[in-house]
Amino acid sequence: MVADLGCGPGRDLAVFTHAGVAAVGVDLSEQMLRLAQAAGGRTVTGDIRRPPLRPAVFHGLWSSAALLHVPRPEVAGTLRAWRSLLRDGGVLSLSTSLGDREGWEAAPCRSDYPPSVPLRRWFVHHDRDELLNLIAQAGFALRTVQKEPRRMTWLQVRAVAA
Ligand SMILES: C[S@@+](CC[C@H](N)C(=O)[O-])C[C@H]1O[C@@H](n2cnc3c(N)ncnc32)[C@H](O)[C@@H]1O
């Protein structure tokens, strides 16, 4: 069982689902969840800071471009909440942005997003080493860490519930 935390319109959730992986997407936006459902995903409305999911049952957590909307003081608690969802040995796959800023930013709408998604969103960019420390402190053992420069610089982290 995999949870896609901050699944948005369900692009990745649909890949899991169509590949035969039992997966559930979590997002706060009902509009996003409607798109995710239309793409074939199973969804739950909820806050990724405290995902409304059963603890210790997930084999994997996938989160792409969602932790970057969690206010910095709440990131450590969010990562601990994520750890509690995983079975021992379960895998976290996280993609989030690098940098030192926190604040409102213009965010271009993607064609698969509903038109009402605001053009400015709250972004929290992370220092690589500080974020890796928070992930380790939340109870994960780091496996792979990769930087990917695009419009923003992304950090892709794979870590295992220790
Ligand atoms: C940039 S989108 C990424 C969506 C998807 N993971 C992807 O890669 O296409 C960020 C998503 O996180 C959701 N989100 C932001 N903060 C959230 C929170 N605290 N709880 C649940 N969802 C949240 C937004 O509604 C949005 O769908």
TrEMBL record:
SUPFAM superfamilies, sorted: S-adenosyl-L-methionine-dependent methyltransferases (SSF53335)
GO molecular function: methyltransferase activity
Methyltransferase domain ranges (all copies): 2-90
Keywords: Methyltransferase, Transferase
Signal peptide positions (record): none
Gene3D superfamilies: Vaccinia Virus protein VP39
GO biological process, one term: methylation
PANTHER family: TRANS-ACONITATE 2-METHYLTRANSFERASE (PTHR43861:SF1), TRANS-ACONITATE 2-METHYLTRANSFERASE-RELATED (PTHR43861)
Name assigned to this protein: Methyltransferase domain-containing protein
Lineage, uppermost ranks: Bacteria, Bacillati, Actinomycetota, Actinomycetes, Frankiales
